[in-house]
Automatic annotation (TrEMBL):
This is 2'-5' RNA ligase family protein. SUPFAM superfamilies: LigT-like (SSF55144). The lineage of its organism: Bacteria, Thermotogati, Deinococcota, Deinococci, Deinococcales. It comes from the Bacteria. InterPro entries: Cyclic_Pdiesterase.
Length: 175
């Protein structure tokens, strides 16, 4: 069974994973609090979701190759951002360089993606529920300053509102 849309993410390691989920809960966004804490590499910006003509096995093979060529790395969130004309609040990244490199590597991997109307902006979505102006101002002040590790590249799919991990692979350990 293919799940759609399919997207590629970097999962956030503990203890920051739990902190992201708690932040989502504090914003009263039960849907996002139920989702994995991750940075989406493909599927929302830059390139869109994977096309459905590809088999899960072919996608997994490509992800395994990319992961084998990518060392684990540390990251740190930057300020909260509200996407223009939306109620989407996201944590930005202080250094976007490794995320752009991975996004580019995935787009050159032979995988096929649907188009996206938005340029690639690595981020972690915190909330998307409607807010008052006062609540929006409060959310823009929220931060998670701790550094965290990214060690898992994963393929997720959405079916009937449920997110399912379809494949995951460890990034290489730095030499």
């Amino acid at each position: 069974m293919k799940l759609e849309p399919m997207f590629i993410v970097l999962e956030i390691d503990e203890p920051v994973r739990t902190q992201v989920i708690q932040l989502r809960k504090s914003c009263k966004d039960a849907f996002r609090a139920s989702l994995p804490a991750e940075i989406t590499l493909t599927g929302s910006s830059g390139v869109g979701p994977l096309t459905l003509e590809q088999s899960i096995e072919d996608i997994a093979t490509a992800l395994d190759k990319v992961a084998a060529d990518t060392p684990r790395f540390q990251a740190q969130f930057g300020p909260m951002l509200r996407f223009p004309e939306t109620d989407l609040f996201v944590l930005t990244l202080r250094d976007e360089t490794p995320f752009h490199a991975l996004h580019d590597q995935l787009t050159r991997s032979g995988l096929q993606f649907k188009p996206s109307a938005f340029p690639f902006k690595p981020h972690c979505t915190v909330s998307g529920n409607p807010v008052t102006a006062e609540e929006a101002a409060r959310r823009l002040q929220l931060t998670l300053p701790a550094a965290f590790t990214l060690s898992m590249l994963a393929l997720y799919g959405l079916q009937d509102g449920q997110v399912t991990r379809m494949h995951s692979t460890q990034l290489t350990v730095p030499a």
